[in-house]
Structures are given as structure tokens and as C-alpha cells.
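Per reviewer request, we include the raw input and output of the structure prediction for the construct analysed in the revised manuscript.
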Amino acid sequence: MIALLLLIFGQSIEFARHLEEEGDLFRAIYEYKRVYFETKDSTLRDSAANKTAYLSIKLGSFNDALLYAERISEKDPLKRIKLGFPNLYLGNYKIAENYWQGNDTLLTWLYLKSGQLDRAKLLFPNLSVNRKSPFLGGFLSAVVPGAGKIYAGRTFDGIVSLIVNASTGYSAYRACRNGRDLEFYLYSSLFLIFYLGDVYGSYVAVNEYNRVSLEKTVKDFEIRFNVWKYWF
């Protein structure tokens, strides 16, 4: 009923805000865009551009967000800061970095999201990022099958890899000892496949561990320092 009344009275900006509060972001963006193109009020127009850019980022429409961030009035003292957000999500790190010069919090966030950990730690020396070496993971599994996956936090997978490699290796050994050439070639081939697969899989598992760990660090940083406060 409220939404219907707002539409009837043509209060598009209020209707858009109502939709946003209700969580209907797609329709809210549509209404904000309508206000942007239809109103002659520069204040409303600027507000609509701001909201469209902000909500588009929330929905993952980063090109749209950049388009409307560029349409924000030059009188807005935060325009450069706002332009950095869609550029960051689009992977335009150098451009975002240029917009955020002087803001150590946003720059650290950018460096974390772009994987530039050394630069992030220069600005925030106490920043802790849990990282492991993929090469060490591969090496551990080369020495003891499954050890690299345990190192990557995948204990169950590591134990399974150890059992599979041990069983195929022992089967190849028994076949060789008993002169069963066909079985020896078969089990040797299987052992080699599982062994090399485990070494490579451990390397990949550690990379995945690092990716998830970095994502968690970025999310924790966003929440702790409330990076979105710089938009408003």
C-alpha cells in the first residue's frame, strides 16, 4: 500500500528509497536511474547518481557503478574516493590507487584485494595474513605422499593420498618381487600417476588455502575498518 501511494504521488526518489530499505535493490536502482534522467533538480540528480553507483556495486554491476560514479557532481568532495570503488572491483587497481592517494585504509584494502601483501604491510605493519608456501606443499608430498595436503589443512585428503600411494606402491613392490611383470607395470603406472597427482594436488591445495585465507583477511579488514564509511 505504501509503495502504491508513493507511485501515485510520483515521489520517485522516495519510492526508490523505500525499495532500497525493503531490500529490492534491482527495482531501487531502476527508480534511481529514472529520477536521474527525469528530474531537473541538481541535488536529486546527484543523489540518484550516488545511490545508483553504490547499489550497483552491491549487486556486482561494476561497469554500471563506474558509469554513475562518473556522473556524480564535481561539487561532491568525495567523488574521487567514490570513483575508486568501482575501479577496484573492475580490477583497475592503478586507477583506484590514484584516486585513493592519501587514504592509507583504502590503499591497504586495495593492496590486499590485489594480492600486493608487501605494500599492504608497509601501510599496516601489524597486518597479519596467514600464508603458506605452495612449493613447500609440493615438496612435502614428494617426500611423504599426502603430507602436503595435510600442510594445506586438508588432513582427510592427505591421509587418503597416503593410503592410496602406499597401497599401489606396495602392490608394485610385491609384483616385482614375485616376478609378475604385468602386475608390476600396472601398479607402477598407477603409483606414478597417484604420486605425481598428489604432488601437484598439494601445490594446488596450498594455493587454494592462500586464496581463502586472503579472502578472509580482506573481509575482516573491510569490517574492522568499515571501508564503506568513506563513501558517505
